[in-house]
Every structure is written in C-alpha cells, then in structure tokens.
Amino acid sequence: MRDTKVPGPERTRPNAGRVVGELLLTVGAVLLLYVFYEAYWTNFVSGRLQDEVDRSLDESWGTGATGDEPVALPAPALGEGFARVHIPALDVAYAVVEGTRNEDLRAGPGHYPDTQMPGEAGNFALAGHRIGTGAVFQHLDRLDACDAVVVETEFQWVTYRVLPLETVSPARRATAEACLSPERADSVSDGDYAHLQGRHITTPDDIAVVNPLPGAAWVEPGPELESILTLTTCHPLFSNAERMIVHAVRVESIPKSSGAMPAALQE
User: Fold this and answer.
1) What are the pLDDT digits (tens) for 160-189?
2) What pTM value is reported for the model?
3) N or C: which end of the chain has fewer CB within 10 A?
C-alpha cells in the first residue's frame, strides 16, 4: 500500500517587506510609549512634586512678615522652594526651587545658583522644561514685550516687565516707553541694556545669558546694574538643540507688610 502523508501547513520564509513592517510597528509602539511617558507621566509626577513644594512654602512663610524687610534672601539649599513666579499673560504660577539639576527641575522652575536672588541688582535666572516634567515654560514663546512676570518671596512682590523684542530704535524706544520709567527706557534703548532682547533663541553653550549683565562679559554685581529676570527653556518643542531666552527688567517691588498686591497680577 502506498504510503501517504497528510499535508501540513506550508512553511514560507518571511520576506524582507514583512520583516521591515514588523520592525516599524515595534519602533512605533516604543515611540508612542516614550511620548506618553515624557509628555504625560512625567507631568503627573512633576505636578505632585510641585504641589509639595508649594505647600511647603505656605507652611514656612506662615502669615507673612511685619515691617519692611530687606530684599536680600538667604541662599536656599539645593532643591528647596523659596519663591513663586507668576506669569499673568499665561495664567500660570509655580513654586521656584533652588538648582537646575534634573531632580530640581522635576519639581518646578529652578534657580541658577550662581545668579542673583529676586529683586537684587544683577540677574535672577530661572530654568524650566518646555515639554514633559511639568512643562512649566512650555509657552514662553507667547510672552510679548511689556508682559509682566511677578516673583513672590516670603517678604515681597517683585514685578518685572519683558524687554522690547525689537533690536533697534526708534521702535525699541517706543516699546520701552510704553511700560518702563524714562530712566529705564533710556537704559534699554541706548544704554547698557540696548543689546538685550526680551525674547530670543540661542545655543546651549551661551552661558552669558545668565551673567549679571546678560549677554556681556561677567561683571561683579553692583548697584549700577538693573535688576533683571531671565527665563530659559529648550527650543524648539521636543528638542534641546537650542535655548529660548526671555529677559525682563524690574519695575516695582512691594513689601508684603504693606498689604498691597501688584496690579500686574490682574492683567
């Protein structure tokens, strides 16, 4: 009797197109998981850390100070919350921590330790993420000249105004005069700060943006310097190839003991 076998399923070799397709699907799934982690999960974790820092400020500040307090603040420890930054044009406010390490920036905007403190002559410089990890500075590109940034400390409110975006007068002077005193408008238009744009893009190695006189060689901070606020973040979105920089100048300081609050918070 002739031997017969039941035919089984035919085995075929995978072709190159199928292999490539499966690899692309795998890569796509990994990328989606990474985007979810970076854009959502890290935001969730950072939000909890930010809430903890914010609560710690309320607890340590208590009911506020009495009498006029000096501008100078003691140097906080790395990772410690010591101020809040309010950006009315973006409808956001965040507790600020000391330091720009990864673990510091997970909790909120971080203060460059070698820069000045809020309201001091020189440069109070902050860094923050633009995507994921709280994305506290995601919309810095929406800030315009004269927009307010208010820094709150235990003892005072310090209001800064974003510098003109124009690089030459008379347009630069006209913008400066719209929100700055005549003396500051002169400094911003034709003086030591005429080079400083309110918002610009630069490279990660441009450390001069956080110098006491931003964009210039490092000088020892002194009373002849304006009080500048600098905000730094990555650029463009989903990349750290460049840096977006926002510069603002102090226009007002109000002691909390006065019971008054900056009008800029209502803008």
Assistant:
1) 999 999 999 899 999 999 999 999 999 999
2) 0.85
3) N
Decide: residue 220, CB within 10 A, 0-12 exposed, 13-18 middle, 19+ buried: exposed
Tell me how far CA of residue 218 lies from CA of 65, 99, 211, 214, 221, in angstroms. 34, 20, 6, 8, 9
Handedness of CA 221, 226, 232, 236 (dihedral sign): negative
- Res. 32 pLDDT band, cuts 50 70 90: very low
Amino acid 16: pLDDT: 63
Question: Domain 43-266 adopts which CATH fold?
Answer: Sortase; Chain: A; (2.40.260)
Furthest C-alpha separation in the chain: 113
Q: State in Å, rounded, how far the first CA of the chain is from the last one.
A: 98
Q: Is residue 139 packed enough to be buried (19+ CB in 10 Å), middle (13-18) or exposed (0-12)?
A: middle
On whether the CB atoms of residues 249 and 198 are closer than 8 A, the answer is no
Whether 94 contacts 136, CB under 8 Å: yes
Q: Enumerate the β-bridge partners of residue 210.
A: none
Contacts of residue 201, defined as CB under 8 A and 6 or more positions apart, other chains included, come to 235, 242, 243, 244, 245
**pLDDT tens digits for range 196-241:** 999 999 999 999 999 999 999 999 999 999 999 999 999 999 899 9
Strands (E), the chain: 81-87, 92-98, 110-111, 122-127, 148-152, 156-162, 199-202, 227-235, 242-255
Q: How far apart are CA 151 and CA 71, in angstroms?
A: 12
Q: Give dist(CA 56, CA 139) in Å, integer.
A: 26
CA-CA-CA-CA torsion sign (22, 23, 24, 30): positive
Which residue type sits at 262?
P
Domain map of the chain by residue range? 43-266
